[in-house]
Amino acid sequence: AVDSSTHCTSPPQTLFVIPSTMTIRHSTCLLILGVGTLLLLAVRGEVAFDFEQNGADWFTLDDIPNNQCGATLRSSPIDIRKDEVKKGASVVSFFYPPLEEEITIFWNDIFVDGELRDPDGTEDFGYLQYQGKQFVAVSFHFHSRSEHTFDGKQFPLEMHIVHVRTDNDQTLPEFAVLGFLFAEGPTRNRFLASLENPDGEPRLPSADEPDVMYTVDSDLSELGQFAADSRIFHYPGSLTTPPCTQAVNWFVVQKPLLAKKEQLDLWVNANLNGNSFRLTQNPEVIDGQTTQRNELVDRFGVLKINADFVPSLLPVEAGVVPDSPVFPDEMRDAVMMALYRAEKRRQHADAILQTAERERHDPLEKLKDLFISSIGGGNLAGLN
After folding, report:
1. Helices and strands (DSSP H and E) totals, the chain
2. Which of 19, 50, 56, 152, by CA, is between 20 and 30 Å from 69?
3. pTM above 0.90, yes or no
């Protein structure tokens, strides 16, 4: 959905398709609408697709412009298989600050969705950076059962934080999605509980109760810190609902979040009774033919990379912890620790460069010593 408070000028005629799972606000809207027409594929009461076959039939949806659900280069979701995972040297950085605005929780005809309806257009959910690319978090939503699986194991629930790239000219769309899986645990999950109806018994919007809508005082800061303490599975993929745009940088948190069974049941039932997921797109050979495929994963595998909680992604003066409601007291220690870790990494990198520079000159020094010994000393002015 596009926030009704956003003011955008008429775009050129380039066609750019974006699904209803996205929320485009303030500066992000100006960047994206500046290069094309936004086509909303699902609006309240008019869903252009369903999950009856869990996406197996989406490639036939001719009424969806720029439908890429039959493409094979980088499709999502996938089954993440340990024997195909490779160690990566890159780091994904993100930061989700506490919010001053409340989050609206609603049913968007596909799944339970969360978005900021900030009338001033001044807040974002958070920020993500990978390999120099900058992304802004614009919304989050849930699937049940999980879309990504680990060695074939499917989890009860999966959450996606959707980010839009903002540091390019938006000629081509590019997204980053941070995914969290939920497994059964001994206690209620505090984050999920913060999103449940705050008035009375826990209650969620759903297909059975589509008019349920409310606001909650919550944020993604704890999830960001949780992800930073885990490893991240990274691969090139797509959106998991039509038009399945093949321009997503996927980051799936290896360690699942835990929630009590009764709480997970509430969320599973709200998300189409556990049937709001697309089938995994790893190579599946049926009758000698490959029917589902992510060619890049097939060729290069999935990377396991590190994550970091980086306060400097917040658009404030670099290295300064703002003294404002954005950073309540309980977060200042985490922020300062993150800045400390960043400084230690910088010092470590400088030490490596200095060692490399010294070693680069060592062979010349050895050659000089060898020449000196061969002539028994002498005038060395010509060697300097």
Report:
1. 6, 20
2. 152
3. no
CA 143 and chain centroid, separation: 15
CA gap 199, 26 in Å, rounded: 31
Q: Kindly provide the residue ranges of all beta strands, DSSP E only, lying in the chain, ordered along the sequence.
A: 15-18, 37-40, 42-43, 46-47, 79-80, 85-95, 103-107, 112-116, 126-130, 133-143, 149-150, 157-165, 175-184, 214-216, 232-237, 248-253, 257-259, 284-286, 289-292, 302-309
User: 349 in helix, strand or coil?
Assistant: helix
Which residue type occupies 110?
A: I
Sorted by sequence, the CB contacts under 8 Å of residue 282 that are 6+ apart come out as: 78, 79, 81, 292, 293, 294, 297, 298
| Alpha carbons 371 and 267: distance in angstroms, whole number | 77
* pLDDT, tens digit, 9 for 90 and up, residues 153-162: 999 999 999 9
- Angstrom CA distances, 211 to 44, 141, 207, 214, stand at 10, 17, 9, 10
Which of 135-139, 355-359, 370-374 is the least confident region? Answer: 370-374
Spatial CB neighbours of 263, under 8 Å, sequence gap ≥ 6: 188, 189, 192, 193, 202
